[in-house]
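=== RUN LOG ===
request id: a7f3
mode: sequence -> structure
chains: 1
length: 308
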Amino acid sequence: MPLVTSKELFKKALEGHYAIGAFNVNNMEIIQGIVEGAADEKAPIILQFSAGARKYARHEYLVKLVQAALETSDLPIVLHLDHGEDFEICRACVDGGFTSVMIDGSRHPFEENIALTRKVVEYAHPRGVTVEAELGKLAGVEDTISVSEKDAIFTNPHQAKDFVARAGCDSLAVAIGTSHGAYKFKGEPTLDFDRLVEIQERLPNFPLVLHGASSVLHDLVDICNRYGGKILGSRGVPEEMISRAAKMNVCKVNIDTDIRLAITGAIRKSLVENPANFDPRHYLGPARDAIKEVVKRKIRVLGCGGTA
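=== RESULT ===
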């Protein structure tokens, strides 16, 4: 099956009241674990690369790895750019085989965000590529993105309809309390569902996106810490909150930290339990299996199993 865009997948997700997992990728084992987990659950997936991933693994390698995934599965797969910071990187990904790009103009004033998003849309749409934009600003750290809590801005529902109409984007990432990284909440986790309801009332039947939506699963954190890690005081978005959002107009949920925790914990465990091992296959294999199980769990939370 060739790569698909997010347009038809989001249409079905809105009708079926579920969301699709968008998993961040940095190497071969991560892609394999995600695809194998999704195949077991018969779920569509979005494989997404950040600017940091493209710098680490190179665009050419990542695209070829995704091509291998297409040849070894029959899943609908979207190849997506996560947090494109400017028009140039979005253009490079459109020209380089991606079927979806995100232009993140959230750091700009409202009118500049619209203008930048519109420029990407006008380049991407004639080439059959869908565009995600962001309105609002999430706290946290991811690759080159670093936003303090005091600088975070929740999405203004009154601006959302105007933004989409003028920018022409196909989906909109909204800020309702999620954040990047493993330290999302200092106190009790909470999302502003009243704000989400108001946004979707102003944008009926329009796909919304949650970034920073890893749950920072305690069992994964415990494995990391038990085998020498120091991931202390981490808190993510509870799975029941993600499930609730997925039943609304949230069609895409970004998951990165939980993948990192799974692969790191499995590698740490393997190396501690087998200190004489120097064969990467013997610790990357278990890491791939750990990713697969996390992906299966996430797909069940999102409700998209069996919809491929």
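=== NOTES ===
The radius of gyration is 18 Å.
The chain has twelve helices and eleven strands.
=== END ===
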